[in-house]
Design a protein that fits this description.
alpha/beta; TIM Barrel; nine-stranded parallel β-sheet; 11 strands; about 45% helix
Amino acid sequence: MPVPGASGGSVREIADAARRIERVGLESAWQGDLLLGRYPTLAAGSVLAAAAAVTERIGLGYAVKVPALHPLPWLAQDLATTQYLSGGRVLYGVTPGDGPFERWRGGLRDQAAWHAVGADYADRERATDAFLERFADLVAGKPVPVDPPGTGEFALTFPVPAPPLLIGGDDAAVFERVVRYGDAWFPAVTAPSRIEAGVTRLRELADAAGRPAPGVTVALPVHLGEGTGGADERARASATIAELYGVPADEASDVMVFGPPRVAAELLAHYAEIGVDRVVFSVSNDRWDDQLELIAEAGRLAAGA
């Protein structure tokens, strides 16, 4: 159940991290895909393809793609290539571009940056829904219309199995979007109380639509180890989380996982009780090797192994 984030770095570091994730028994590896802001990351598709080349079992997750920033043909080619090279192991996270993922360092709320890539921040919701409406046909290789309307169609020459679609966001509209299009809700850096309320809302909407309740994947920063999580350390981390992610100050301490593996195991058990299927643990690049072992231990403790 616990899932670490795949770190950016040299190809050797990416390969080492992916092999370690698989070797210690974790479920999947994830890569962020921040294009805008002060700290753009490595492109998720390229990192995940590198990870796919040295692994056989683990899922490979985008955390997350912002469809409104990219032309449809480019999105389709990137997704299909990663899905093809991984043998169908992609987990595809997407978001309109206005949740905690995108508030990181204030990046995607900078409208000038959106214009720099030819995108309109004010149009992000419509563009996201247009992508989601075409998603199933797109990956199946069927012709789909491109923007602007009436200008033509696009089709993949190498259709692939549709990956699970995880939809991020933290506003009221996200739940209807998840129920209509997605396989799971993908909130990030969100307090357990908000997750529980969101799960309840998802189930209500799914029941009304006559479909099974979507899954829930939660992304959280983590720092495990004996002797971690003291009052001063938690206060500093809470202040950083509030600044970077825009999390309310009174909730910031609830979204960072500190302490020995048993603390993370208790949190995993709590999340499972309220309906969370997967937790994506994000670790700092300079600590990923020891953190993977501790996360795996937490997973075993949560499972009662």
